[in-house]
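Retro notes - structure team

What went well: the batch runner handled both jobs without manual restarts.
What didn't: labels got mixed up in the shared folder, which is why I'm recording both outputs here explicitly, each with its sequence directly above its tokens.

Job 1
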Amino acid sequence: MDTEGAPAPRHLPGHIAAALARAGERSDSAGQPWAGRDLSGEGNSLHQFDADDGAADPGVEAAIAALASGEAGGECGAGTEEAVFASLATARVFVPVVASLAEGAIGAHGFAEDKEADMALVTLTAPDGRKALPVFTSVARLEAWHAEARPVAVFAPRAALSAVSEGAELLVIDPGADVTFVLRRPAVWALAQQRPWTPSYRDASLAEVVSEAIEDLEPVRAARLEPGKGVATRDRAGRVVPGGGPGPELRIVLELAPGLPADALREMVTELNGRLAGSERFAEAVDSIEISLRAFGD
């Protein structure tokens, strides 16, 4: 046979050749047998979201849009942080994970192979240094934020539970999107436990805790709770959104007798902080506070 002028033989890349050489084996690359595995969707929890199109949950979209537009519908109605939290309670979200090689080895054909690869959650560092877990309402928003991350579909309470297990105190919904909403620690814990949540600045039981804490603080005439400066945030266009900020979320306004020296004020604030920190209920329900001092009657 005349081979003059025939092209030189082409060789497959080594990693592909090694993969093909393993084809047909009775176990996967980790040594787990293929036999007996049920990879069908029905009855397999891994395929709970088989029909999912990756779009954002309509309820979450509507709740965040109402908040961003300022359409407040009462203390816990539409346009509030509570409404966004309630929409997340039953919503599917996407958690970003990235693959990291845990252990490598030389395979039977002399090429480096991934023997173990861990899937690691992507985490963020908040401005105050705390760990935060990013969560996305849609695949498109996740891919726009991190092209190499893989979306894992989970219900939002499961994502909150993952945040708690990772030591993350904040859940950041849709970072980089037109509106980014942050769930602070008390809300993250409540979502993970699938129980209701009320922001601290609306919680009547906390008002009672503060009232008890100031009972014998002589300079204090009255106290009230308000949303802190960290409750509000801004959307991508710079417009103020009245919720979803990372904190501080609670402002305690103290009305004081006039004419107190600065040293007495500092001692009083320190004493109050200590009393509130000793309250289990307050510590559980409040993420961060700011104290505002005003002359009584102002």
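Job 2
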Amino acid sequence: MSFIFTPPPGHRLSPARKASFTSGDFACNLYWQSVSLYLLFFYTDVVGLSAATAGLIYMVASIFDGAIDPVMGAVADRTRTKQGRYRPYVLWGGVPLGLAFVLLYYKPPLEGVALVAWILVAHLIFRVAYTALSIPYTSLNARITDSSAERSTLAGFRMIFATLAGLTIASTTQPLAAHLGGGDTAWGYTLTAAVYATIATVIFPFVYLTTKEPPEDPGAAEPTMRMSQYWGAVRSNRAFWAVMAAICTAVICSTAVGKSVLYYFKYYLHDEAGGRIALSLNAASGLLIIPAWIFASKFISKRSAWFVCVLWGLVCLTAFAFMDVRSPPLMMAILLAMQISSLGAAMTFWSMLPDTVEYGEWKTGMRAESFIFGLGQFFLKVALGLGAGIFGWSLDLVGFHPNVEQTPETLAGLKAIMVVLPMAGLALGGLAMLMYPLKKGVHEDIVEQLAARRRVPPEAVAEVP
């Protein structure tokens, strides 16, 4: 059985079309960057949860989020409307997501188990709303072009908008919370979340109106794939599994660096404002680093780019391990150097993932693009959840307590967390990428073979190689 996709006529997208589509990443990342950079800190230093409890809530919510991603992917794959498979979710999912985000940063007048339960439920509601919109949105990457080169550029555009969102979140969250809260920090975070949600909610209809999906092939089979067929479509997709193994091992361990920044500056360097500056500089650096990676990807394969990221990251972490960094500017410089590796890996991942769709179709004759994106985000979110959980437990293990002076042993433990975990993740991620089969030029050959196969009447195709 073959489920056929007809690619758009011509592979190239205009810069305006790329920008309008990828502006959705600014909206999505107002949410995602906030959750990544501030939510764990909000749980411990504003709500007052222990690091272990905060990490556990974050981990449970992330794993739950990941578990529903493939289901949402299958639902989106089977959706057929006049507006397309995925665009309606982008249009109608914005308002529920915005409301859920505000709820995520609301601290109710509760204590103990009741407070923990509220925080967990609010987090789960947000994850459902985010998944319902983000899976169809990211799946559009594989629909609007099948060119590997264009996807690299799209990934770059997406990362630039994500960087702008990260810069916005990093530089304005704490000042806005302090200003809007009027002395009540928790309420300030709630109102700040409302500001970000309003901005994001306005952007999604614009993405809907300016992004067009290619028409369905009238001769293609109806979307009747069962869940077992979806699994069959990805089971032998070696490209997909290599990418997921690489990104998940890297993310589980490297999460420690990103989530340590606010704690390191507040407790190690005694410069809490410096943490916000460091996060802002890291975000702003993407405006230079990402175009550089886009340019480099034109000359080296995506697989090679991954190995460069791994090597550079290991060098930076080794240097940090042997230095006693007590100066905020020096720590900012080290974080900026590490950002080169992090952004390169992220861009490479989002550029590789759409390519695995064609590899799977070439191997099995079935195209399950949204399911692949959903399954990919499942593993990614589980990895992020495990990373946050491990980080929270590690903080608890080294004796961390919020809003008090930390012992020298705790501070040494914090630095060890920031070095050992990311180094292990980078090394394992590099080993996993050795199994990635799409070396330079291979994907382009596969796309040509698929185009030739589609020109053959379905009844003439006896077997998919």
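One thing worth noting from job 2: The CA atoms of residues 94 and 201 lie 5 Å apart.
We'll revisit the folder naming next retro.
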